[in-house]
Amino acid sequence: MNPLTLTLPRLARKPAMLALATTTMLALGPSAPRSAIDWFAGICGVDPSMSNASTHTGAASRPASTVKVLSCEALPNVPGKSVTTAIVDFPPLGFTPAHRHPGSVTAVVLEGTIRSQLQGGPPVDYAVAQTWFEPPRALHLFAENPDAVHPAKILATFIADTNCGPLVLPPD
Q1: Measured between alpha carbons, how far is residue 59 from residues 18, 64, 100, 118 in Å?
Q2: Does pTM surpass 0.70?
Q3: What H or E segment, with its residue span, contains residue 37?
Q4: Where does the record locate the signal sequence feature (predicted)?
């Protein structure tokens, strides 16, 4: 099992920054939960409150979801691709702003309710055991836990490039 090293495509052109980001993520290990918003802010120098990713009132002040990568394995029958599984925890009123994924994603709700919206579709509330699919590079406008009291959790399965490349991309 290879630990996930999160990188952004623009970092791939900057080997020193890529090495630093990879070393940091390896040191933290895949069991260290990371806020996608905090990760983008730390690696990219982006202020999450300045994101055009959300038109939700108070989105920047809402708690962020956290991601815990469970595994990343090369697919022997699909050269150049890997499958990564991750648990995404949403605290009460937890929020994830607009983003894309470089590969296909399937999510299943394990706990609570998740409200999610892909570009071109309406917001949908998903309950325990319900799933949704995101095509590669589709704009995921937001995902949130609409419950102010109870947490929510999803299992996300990504099919993307081998070597556990980036799983989350900026919305642009």
Answers
A1: 29, 9, 18, 17
A2: no
A3: helix 36-44
A4: 1-21
What are the sequence ranges of the domains in the chain?
A: 31-47+58-161
Burial of 63 (0-12, 13-18, 19+ CB in 10 A): middle
The second-level CATH assignment, the architecture, of 31-47+58-161 is Sandwich (2.60)
- 142 is written with which tokens? 């937001």
- Model confidence over 31-74: pLDDT tens digits? 344 444 443 333 333 333 333 334 455 677 899 999 999 999 99
> Is 91 in contact with 147 (CB distance < 8 Å)?
no
- Residue 99, helix vs strand vs coil: strand
The Cα 22–Cα 15 span in angstroms is 10
